[in-house]
């Protein structure tokens, strides 16, 4: 293959979408953008410290608040994972970890990472910061509700953390909280622990619904002139679709939380059949534990994509900017995001192949699950095709994107194992599952989050992060995480079951003791290497290189604010007007290797833009 | 440049890990070899795609790393390429799914000659029940469970009288005879899982679930609970012994039936009454 390629198909000359006559008109005509349909929104400007920084209505501040709170929970989750790994790798080393503790760590780690860390970080953090900036709005459409959304989340986190300190400790029911065990005495934290968990989740859903409505309506209603849906950055498409999923999926979680709280506190039997425990017949009867699983996974599977879709969107934008090339197949990428989102509501029971549901469901859910692999694979192809014949900056951001591709493809392919019902049967509830979901929805989205932090830190703070530290951070994180989870698949092949506090001297694990020790050491290294990241952020805040405007030479709107970091209201006097999509990199005939979304066609008359 | 080499190292390392790994499937001891075949098929196709995608990525970052003024291709879409990729992926997915569904169809359709075995699970232990000479398990319900009736058997059901009760966590099975495992739970979810048999299914309080397999290799196997069931989950082990037909028949003759249990209990009661009377 060579760098030369055919440029024969002469592209259409630059023009805005409304003009169909000809591109030879006067510069005024080709720059025409439809006038705004609605008057501008008035914003409440905070005056005191409290209204500016605490009970703040500015989506950017709320985004940072979400981000910091989520990162705090993430650090708690990380420490819990160390404790679990210590028990698994070196059981004699930490005698204070009992089986009760271990299961509490497992549960809290899972729930924190999935809901309070990843979901809140992507949608609450990046969503709040980026949506108004990227669509050219002054703020979210309901700034007050947006503020309440964060504080509901904050209270939910407080309630969750409080459960560490109640009698009996936090719930140890596993993050899936399957009844009947979640609310029966055989499980740690089956009194206050589980109740606080259910209350916290309910609060989270309520708060998140407020935020989510804001994201959806802002994207649908508050886009600036010229920002058509098909000119939105993929980041926005990812966040938009994920939020729509959240709005439809979280009610199922709320319902199951409420019903389980009633089962626990009032003795109803939504999920509780007749049960004999310790020789006594309990007062429950007639409920169905499988019903809970259906409700939980009706939420739980879209939840996977609530995390994944924003990551897909963000990584597309990061790759495009730093490869200096348009994202390949933008329209297909958009439809893939929407399609994956829609399909994600029809695959939930692939988590339940061995749950005792009607076995005929297996055929349906295996088929839908493997269908979803097609748009997902297409997205992967488009990312790597974008790298082909590009001009790739090998900076920290790009490294994290590449790390994402490797881990996501790895985890995606193991998903095909687990989605295919006959293959899932021997593998379900083994370490293969742990390896799969950590690779695909743990490490892969984390790679994107970290890449995104390196990418947008200059916008948020006005200073660059250190590239040198960033690269060390990347290699420790990527290589370390890969060596945790890649070998773990093989534990699953042996048949080692998950959620085992100890294996004793089972024949399956005697050969794997060394591997368990290795994984634990790797997990500790990866965890501690995050200190490089935190150090980088703290130090760069004060002595980082000043970023100036648009340091990455990106096209999308968030980099084009009059002030950096953007001020409240984002755009100064006049809202920006959009003339093109955000991916016009290295357009033939253009002077620079990028054309921002606000550049009118008349300024780049010689550029042979193919689409707008 | 360095980054590309390290990424290449990760791919090569993964392949080497696979070649030299001492960790792989346990030797299969049931009829579900077809499951292993589907897994291997998925493994090779999936692994191949993983390596190809990563190698292409490495090629791109080695070849097109940043150079001022490099010619960059400007081609937002390529319908032909996109169509080819869509069709190829769809074909690949069908090739993986179809055999899986065929195997699954066998998995959920139990052969007629399968021996029924009821597995009772509770926090945290196992016991078993086999049908007697009539080949039919009597009905039972957890609410009927008591010290005298540890399986909650329906006393009015004549089918239950000759049921064989194994109040122990060691289950014996006959080699080369399909077994239908009927799962009951007294309290929470459990899962009767022997890695060498490949098959598994949750036990759920309130309903009876099932799966089947045909043990085809003599030996002793460890049973693991494969659905989290509370703090004793990891300790919920049991044993399956697969025997030849002769040994199995000898073993089963020694086991107690439900009628034996009732007779024994009545004798015990009678004895205690007599003892009580004598003491008077």
Largest interface by Cβ-Cβ < 8 Å: A-B, 118 and 105 residues
How do the helices and strands follow one another from N- to C-terminus of chain B? HHHEEEEEEEEEEHEH
Rough outline of chain A: globular
Radius of gyration of chain B: 28 Å
The strand line-up of the biggest sheet of chain B is 8-5-1-2-3-11
Low-confidence stretches of chain B: none
Percent of residues in helices of chain B: 25-40%
Q: What's the oligomerization state?
A: heterodimer
CATH class of the largest domain in chain B: Mainly Beta
What does this protein look like?
- The complex is a heterodimer of chains A (612) and B (280).
- Chain A is an all-alpha fold.
- Chain A has 15 helices and 2 strands.
- Chain A has helices at 27-30, 49-54, 59-89, 99-135, 143-162, 192-221, 234-265, 289-323, 330-343, 361-387, 396-419, 421-427, 431-461, 467-494, 513-543; strands at residues 276-277, 280-281.
- In chain A, a hairpin with a 2-residue loop joins strand 1 and strand 2 (280-281).
- In chain A, helix 3 (59-89) runs parallel beside helix 5 (143-162), helix 4 (99-135) crosses helix 13 and helix 8 (289-323) packs parallel to helix 10.
- In chain A, 60% of the residues are buried.
- Chain B folds into 2 domains: 2-62 and 82-108, no CATH class; 115-270, Cupredoxins -  blue copper proteins (Immunoglobulin-like), CATH 2.60.40.420.
- Chain B is built from 5 helices and 11 strands; from the N terminus they run αααββββββββββαβα.
- Chain B has helices spanning 2-20, 33-63, 79-108, 245-253, 258-279; strands at 115-122, 125-130, 164-166, 170-174, 179-185, 190-193, 202-203, 209-213, 219-225, 237-243, 256-257.
- Chain B is elongated, with a radius of gyration of 28 Å.
- At the A-B interface, helix 4, strand 1, helix 8, helix 9 and helix 10 of A face helix 1, helix 2, helix 3, strand 7 and strand 9 of B.
